[in-house]
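so i finally got all the pieces together for this one. its two components total, 347 residues if u count the protein bits. some of the lines might not be protein, just check the labels. i wanna see the whole assembly predicted at once instead of chain by chain like last time, that was a mess tbh
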Amino acid sequence: MDDMTYLLAFIAVGTLATFATRVIPFAFFSRHSEHPLIQHLGRFLPAAVMSLLVVIFLLRSGHWSAPVLGADALVPSLIVVGLHLWRRNALLSIIAGTACYMAIQQAGLS
Amino acid sequence: MTDRSVFKLTLPILFGYIPLGMAFGVLFVTQLDYPWWGATLMSLAIYAGAGQILAVSLLAAHAGLLEVFVALFVLNARHLFYGLSLLGRFRGARWRKGYLIFGLTDETYSLLTSRDRTGDTAAEQRRDVLITLYNQSYWVIGSTLGAWSGRAVSFDSTGIEFALVALFIVLTIEQYKVLGQMLPIWIGAAAAGLSLALLPADQQLIGAVVLATLTLLTHYRFHRPAETTGSQERSHG
Protein backbone atom coordinates (compact mmCIF):
# COMPACT_ATOMS: atom_id res chain seq x y z
CA MET A 1 0.00 0.00 0.00
CA ASP A 2 1.56 3.34 -1.01
CA ASP A 3 1.48 6.30 1.37
CA MET A 4 -1.51 8.06 -0.14
CA THR A 5 -3.64 4.90 -0.19
CA TYR A 6 -2.66 4.25 3.42
CA LEU A 7 -3.67 7.78 4.46
CA LEU A 8 -7.06 7.49 2.77
CA ALA A 9 -7.71 4.00 4.18
CA PHE A 10 -6.63 5.24 7.61
CA ILE A 11 -9.09 8.15 7.45
CA ALA A 12 -11.89 5.85 6.27
CA VAL A 13 -11.30 3.45 9.17
CA GLY A 14 -11.00 6.31 11.68
CA THR A 15 -14.25 7.79 10.41
CA LEU A 16 -16.03 4.46 10.73
CA ALA A 17 -14.76 3.83 14.27
CA THR A 18 -15.73 7.31 15.50
CA PHE A 19 -19.14 7.28 13.83
CA ALA A 20 -19.81 3.81 15.27
CA THR A 21 -19.44 5.12 18.84
CA ARG A 22 -21.95 7.87 18.07
CA VAL A 23 -24.53 5.87 16.11
CA ILE A 24 -24.72 2.62 18.13
CA PRO A 25 -27.11 3.92 20.81
CA PHE A 26 -29.46 5.25 18.11
CA ALA A 27 -29.25 2.01 16.14
CA PHE A 28 -30.00 -0.27 19.10
CA PHE A 29 -32.10 1.74 21.54
CA SER A 30 -34.19 4.00 19.31
CA ARG A 31 -37.36 2.00 19.95
CA HIS A 32 -36.96 2.41 23.71
CA SER A 33 -36.71 6.18 23.83
CA GLU A 34 -39.95 6.37 25.86
CA HIS A 35 -38.72 3.87 28.44
CA PRO A 36 -38.56 5.53 31.88
CA LEU A 37 -34.98 4.35 32.38
CA ILE A 38 -33.86 6.05 29.15
CA GLN A 39 -35.85 9.17 30.12
CA HIS A 40 -34.14 9.18 33.50
CA LEU A 41 -30.70 9.05 31.83
CA GLY A 42 -31.76 11.73 29.36
CA ARG A 43 -32.71 14.00 32.21
CA PHE A 44 -29.72 13.52 34.52
CA LEU A 45 -26.79 12.25 32.44
CA PRO A 46 -25.99 15.59 30.74
CA ALA A 47 -25.50 17.32 34.11
CA ALA A 48 -23.29 14.48 35.35
CA VAL A 49 -21.24 14.46 32.14
CA MET A 50 -20.82 18.23 32.25
CA SER A 51 -19.48 18.17 35.79
CA LEU A 52 -17.13 15.26 35.13
CA LEU A 53 -15.75 17.08 32.10
CA VAL A 54 -15.15 20.12 34.31
CA VAL A 55 -13.28 18.08 36.94
CA ILE A 56 -11.14 16.15 34.46
CA PHE A 57 -10.21 19.09 32.22
CA LEU A 58 -9.70 21.40 35.18
CA LEU A 59 -7.20 18.98 36.69
CA ARG A 60 -5.38 18.77 33.37
CA SER A 61 -5.28 22.57 32.99
CA GLY A 62 -3.50 23.37 36.25
CA HIS A 63 -0.17 22.75 37.95
CA TRP A 64 -0.97 20.93 41.17
CA SER A 65 2.43 20.78 42.80
CA ALA A 66 3.60 23.31 45.41
CA PRO A 67 3.66 26.29 45.50
CA VAL A 68 0.95 26.75 42.85
CA LEU A 69 -1.44 24.02 44.08
CA GLY A 70 -3.70 24.41 41.10
CA ALA A 71 -4.32 28.11 41.62
CA ASP A 72 -3.42 28.75 37.95
CA ALA A 73 -6.57 26.84 36.95
CA LEU A 74 -8.73 27.43 40.03
CA VAL A 75 -8.56 31.24 40.01
CA PRO A 76 -9.81 31.53 36.40
CA SER A 77 -12.49 28.93 37.17
CA LEU A 78 -13.74 30.87 40.19
CA ILE A 79 -13.92 33.97 38.00
CA VAL A 80 -16.09 32.02 35.56
CA VAL A 81 -18.37 30.74 38.36
CA GLY A 82 -18.63 34.11 40.10
CA LEU A 83 -19.28 36.11 36.93
CA HIS A 84 -21.77 33.57 35.71
CA LEU A 85 -23.77 33.54 38.92
CA TRP A 86 -23.72 37.33 38.94
CA ARG A 87 -24.44 38.29 35.31
CA ARG A 88 -25.47 34.96 33.77
CA ASN A 89 -23.87 35.96 30.49
CA ALA A 90 -22.14 32.83 29.17
CA LEU A 91 -19.86 34.63 26.73
CA LEU A 92 -18.71 37.18 29.29
CA SER A 93 -17.92 34.47 31.87
CA ILE A 94 -16.00 32.39 29.34
CA ILE A 95 -13.99 35.27 27.86
CA ALA A 96 -13.04 36.67 31.28
CA GLY A 97 -11.99 33.28 32.64
CA THR A 98 -10.01 32.40 29.52
CA ALA A 99 -8.23 35.77 29.43
CA CYS A 100 -7.26 35.32 33.07
CA TYR A 101 -5.96 31.80 32.43
CA MET A 102 -3.98 32.94 29.38
CA ALA A 103 -2.45 35.84 31.32
CA ILE A 104 -1.34 33.51 34.12
CA GLN A 105 0.11 30.91 31.74
CA GLN A 106 1.88 33.42 29.51
CA ALA A 107 3.30 35.39 32.43
CA GLY A 108 4.82 32.15 33.67
CA LEU A 109 3.17 32.53 37.09
CA SER A 110 2.39 28.84 37.24
CA MET B 1 -34.30 31.88 18.92
CA THR B 2 -32.97 33.51 15.76
CA ASP B 3 -30.10 32.20 13.62
CA ARG B 4 -28.00 34.99 15.03
CA SER B 5 -28.52 33.88 18.61
CA VAL B 6 -27.76 30.29 17.57
CA PHE B 7 -24.42 31.58 16.29
CA LYS B 8 -23.81 33.43 19.56
CA LEU B 9 -24.41 30.21 21.46
CA THR B 10 -21.54 28.57 19.57
CA LEU B 11 -19.01 31.39 20.12
CA PRO B 12 -17.29 29.66 23.08
CA ILE B 13 -16.79 26.63 20.84
CA LEU B 14 -15.27 28.93 18.22
CA PHE B 15 -12.68 30.11 20.77
CA GLY B 16 -11.95 26.53 21.74
CA TYR B 17 -12.00 24.79 18.37
CA ILE B 18 -9.97 27.26 16.30
CA PRO B 19 -6.83 27.04 18.51
CA LEU B 20 -7.23 23.32 19.23
CA GLY B 21 -7.88 22.61 15.55
CA MET B 22 -4.77 24.66 14.71
CA ALA B 23 -2.76 22.64 17.22
CA PHE B 24 -3.90 19.48 15.47
CA GLY B 25 -3.09 20.94 12.03
CA VAL B 26 0.39 22.02 13.10
CA LEU B 27 1.02 18.60 14.65
CA PHE B 28 -0.16 16.91 11.47
CA VAL B 29 2.19 18.75 9.09
CA THR B 30 5.20 18.83 11.39
CA GLN B 31 5.06 15.17 12.48
CA LEU B 32 4.04 13.62 9.18
CA ASP B 33 5.03 13.78 5.53
CA TYR B 34 1.49 14.07 4.24
CA PRO B 35 0.05 17.10 2.39
CA TRP B 36 -1.90 19.72 4.41
CA TRP B 37 -5.30 18.62 3.11
CA GLY B 38 -4.93 15.36 5.03
CA ALA B 39 -5.60 17.38 8.19
CA THR B 40 -8.64 19.05 6.59
CA LEU B 41 -10.01 15.73 5.38
CA MET B 42 -9.63 14.19 8.84
CA SER B 43 -11.54 17.08 10.43
CA LEU B 44 -14.29 16.76 7.82
CA ALA B 45 -14.65 12.98 8.08
CA ILE B 46 -13.45 11.80 11.51
CA TYR B 47 -14.27 14.96 13.51
CA ALA B 48 -13.04 14.01 16.97
CA GLY B 49 -10.49 16.19 18.79
CA ALA B 50 -8.59 13.74 20.95
CA GLY B 51 -9.14 11.01 18.37
CA GLN B 52 -7.40 12.98 15.62
CA ILE B 53 -4.44 13.85 17.82
CA LEU B 54 -4.04 10.17 18.65
CA ALA B 55 -4.42 9.49 14.92
CA VAL B 56 -1.31 11.56 14.19
CA SER B 57 0.82 9.27 16.32
CA LEU B 58 -0.85 6.19 14.83
CA LEU B 59 -0.12 7.51 11.33
CA ALA B 60 3.47 8.23 12.27
CA ALA B 61 3.83 4.66 13.57
CA HIS B 62 2.19 3.32 10.40
CA ALA B 63 -0.27 1.40 12.60
CA GLY B 64 -2.35 -1.46 11.21
CA LEU B 65 -5.91 -0.56 10.24
CA LEU B 66 -7.51 -2.92 12.77
CA GLU B 67 -5.42 -1.34 15.52
CA VAL B 68 -6.55 2.09 14.28
CA PHE B 69 -10.19 1.04 14.48
CA VAL B 70 -9.88 -0.36 17.99
CA ALA B 71 -7.86 2.59 19.29
CA LEU B 72 -10.31 5.21 18.01
CA PHE B 73 -13.37 3.23 19.06
CA VAL B 74 -12.09 2.84 22.61
CA LEU B 75 -10.97 6.47 22.84
CA ASN B 76 -14.40 7.71 21.72
CA ALA B 77 -16.47 5.13 23.59
CA ARG B 78 -17.97 7.77 25.90
CA HIS B 79 -20.09 8.88 22.93
CA LEU B 80 -22.04 5.63 23.31
CA PHE B 81 -23.57 7.12 26.44
CA TYR B 82 -24.20 10.58 24.99
CA GLY B 83 -26.51 9.09 22.38
CA LEU B 84 -28.53 7.34 25.08
CA SER B 85 -29.61 10.69 26.48
CA LEU B 86 -30.54 12.14 23.08
CA LEU B 87 -32.69 9.35 21.64
CA GLY B 88 -35.95 11.28 21.99
CA ARG B 89 -34.53 14.61 20.93
CA PHE B 90 -33.36 13.48 17.49
CA ARG B 91 -36.48 11.41 16.82
CA GLY B 92 -38.13 12.23 13.51
CA ALA B 93 -35.29 14.45 12.33
CA ARG B 94 -35.09 12.35 9.13
CA TRP B 95 -32.05 13.22 6.97
CA ARG B 96 -30.81 15.64 9.59
CA LYS B 97 -30.50 12.85 12.12
CA GLY B 98 -27.48 11.33 10.37
CA TYR B 99 -25.51 14.57 10.58
CA LEU B 100 -26.63 15.30 14.15
CA ILE B 101 -25.32 11.89 15.23
CA PHE B 102 -22.11 12.23 13.21
CA GLY B 103 -21.34 15.61 14.79
CA LEU B 104 -21.87 14.62 18.41
CA THR B 105 -18.62 15.82 20.01
CA ASP B 106 -18.29 16.58 23.75
CA GLU B 107 -18.85 20.27 23.10
CA THR B 108 -21.80 19.87 20.72
CA TYR B 109 -23.43 17.41 23.14
CA SER B 110 -22.97 19.99 25.90
CA LEU B 111 -24.66 22.76 23.92
CA LEU B 112 -27.50 20.62 22.61
CA THR B 113 -28.43 19.25 26.03
CA SER B 114 -28.15 22.59 27.86
CA ARG B 115 -29.88 25.10 25.62
CA ASP B 116 -33.44 26.42 25.99
CA ARG B 117 -36.01 24.76 23.75
CA THR B 118 -39.48 25.61 22.48
CA GLY B 119 -42.16 23.00 21.81
CA ASP B 120 -41.59 23.21 18.06
CA THR B 121 -39.54 20.02 17.56
CA ALA B 122 -38.84 20.50 13.85
CA ALA B 123 -37.58 24.05 14.33
CA GLU B 124 -35.44 23.01 17.30
CA GLN B 125 -33.89 20.18 15.31
CA ARG B 126 -33.06 22.64 12.52
CA ARG B 127 -31.25 24.76 15.14
CA ASP B 128 -29.46 21.66 16.45
CA VAL B 129 -28.16 21.01 12.92
CA LEU B 130 -27.05 24.62 12.61
CA ILE B 131 -25.16 24.43 15.92
CA THR B 132 -23.49 21.17 14.86
CA LEU B 133 -22.57 22.66 11.50
CA TYR B 134 -21.10 25.85 13.02
CA ASN B 135 -19.04 23.81 15.46
CA GLN B 136 -17.63 21.50 12.83
CA SER B 137 -16.78 24.41 10.56
CA TYR B 138 -14.70 25.99 13.38
CA TRP B 139 -12.84 22.70 13.77
CA VAL B 140 -12.24 22.32 10.01
CA ILE B 141 -11.11 25.94 9.62
CA GLY B 142 -8.79 25.68 12.63
CA SER B 143 -7.16 22.46 11.41
CA THR B 144 -6.69 23.84 7.91
CA LEU B 145 -5.15 27.08 9.18
CA GLY B 146 -2.81 25.09 11.41
CA ALA B 147 -1.79 22.78 8.59
CA TRP B 148 -1.09 25.74 6.29
CA SER B 149 0.89 27.78 8.72
CA GLY B 150 2.89 24.91 10.18
CA ARG B 151 5.36 26.24 12.69
CA ALA B 152 4.98 29.84 11.55
CA VAL B 153 2.15 30.76 13.95
CA SER B 154 3.14 34.03 15.60
CA PHE B 155 0.17 34.96 17.83
CA ASP B 156 0.81 33.66 21.33
CA SER B 157 -2.40 31.82 22.04
CA THR B 158 -1.04 29.75 24.91
CA GLY B 159 -3.88 28.87 27.23
CA ILE B 160 -6.76 29.86 24.94
CA GLU B 161 -8.05 26.26 24.99
CA PHE B 162 -9.22 27.01 28.54
CA ALA B 163 -12.32 28.41 26.78
CA LEU B 164 -13.62 24.85 26.64
CA VAL B 165 -13.12 24.30 30.39
CA ALA B 166 -14.90 27.61 31.01
CA LEU B 167 -17.71 26.50 28.69
CA PHE B 168 -18.15 23.26 30.64
CA ILE B 169 -18.27 25.22 33.91
CA VAL B 170 -20.94 27.56 32.54
CA LEU B 171 -22.98 24.64 31.20
CA THR B 172 -22.78 22.82 34.54
CA ILE B 173 -24.27 25.90 36.22
CA GLU B 174 -26.97 26.05 33.54
CA GLN B 175 -27.75 22.35 34.02
CA TYR B 176 -28.11 22.97 37.74
CA LYS B 177 -30.53 25.83 37.09
CA VAL B 178 -32.66 23.64 34.83
CA LEU B 179 -32.73 20.60 37.14
CA GLY B 180 -32.88 22.44 40.46
CA GLN B 181 -30.79 19.77 42.12
CA MET B 182 -27.14 19.12 42.75
CA LEU B 183 -27.20 15.31 42.92
CA PRO B 184 -26.30 14.53 39.27
CA ILE B 185 -23.55 17.15 39.44
CA TRP B 186 -22.05 15.53 42.54
CA ILE B 187 -22.34 12.13 40.85
CA GLY B 188 -20.35 13.40 37.85
CA ALA B 189 -17.73 15.07 40.01
CA ALA B 190 -17.30 11.99 42.22
CA ALA B 191 -17.09 9.71 39.18
CA ALA B 192 -14.36 11.97 37.74
CA GLY B 193 -12.48 12.05 41.06
CA LEU B 194 -12.54 8.26 41.36
CA SER B 195 -11.41 7.60 37.82
CA LEU B 196 -8.66 10.24 38.08
CA ALA B 197 -7.40 8.47 41.19
CA LEU B 198 -7.69 4.92 39.85
CA LEU B 199 -7.21 4.95 36.07
CA PRO B 200 -4.41 5.89 33.66
CA ALA B 201 -4.92 9.18 31.80
CA ASP B 202 -6.23 7.69 28.58
CA GLN B 203 -9.04 5.80 30.36
CA GLN B 204 -10.18 8.48 32.79
CA LEU B 205 -12.84 10.05 30.60
CA ILE B 206 -14.56 6.83 29.60
CA GLY B 207 -14.15 5.45 33.14
CA ALA B 208 -15.90 8.48 34.60
CA VAL B 209 -18.74 8.37 32.05
CA VAL B 210 -19.35 4.67 32.74
CA LEU B 211 -19.25 5.22 36.51
CA ALA B 212 -21.65 8.17 36.33
CA THR B 213 -24.06 6.20 34.12
CA LEU B 214 -24.01 3.18 36.46
CA THR B 215 -24.61 5.46 39.45
CA LEU B 216 -27.55 7.09 37.68
CA LEU B 217 -28.99 3.66 36.89
CA THR B 218 -28.79 2.78 40.59
CA HIS B 219 -30.30 6.15 41.40
CA TYR B 220 -33.16 5.30 39.03
CA ARG B 221 -34.01 2.12 40.96
CA PHE B 222 -34.52 4.10 44.16
CA HIS B 223 -36.06 7.06 42.42
CA ARG B 224 -38.70 5.30 40.38
CA PRO B 225 -41.50 4.83 42.95
CA ALA B 226 -41.44 8.58 43.58
CA GLU B 227 -41.68 9.33 39.87
CA THR B 228 -44.71 7.12 39.31
CA THR B 229 -46.59 8.96 42.05
CA GLY B 230 -45.64 12.20 40.33
CA SER B 231 -43.56 13.71 43.14
CA GLN B 232 -40.08 13.10 41.91
CA GLU B 233 -38.42 15.66 44.12
CA ARG B 234 -39.17 13.51 47.17
CA SER B 235 -35.90 11.90 48.02
CA HIS B 236 -35.44 8.18 48.32
CA GLY B 237 -31.68 8.16 48.05
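The CA atoms of residues 15 and 21 of chain A lie 10 Å apart.
Chain A touches chain B through 70 residues (CB under 8 Å).
anyway lmk what u think
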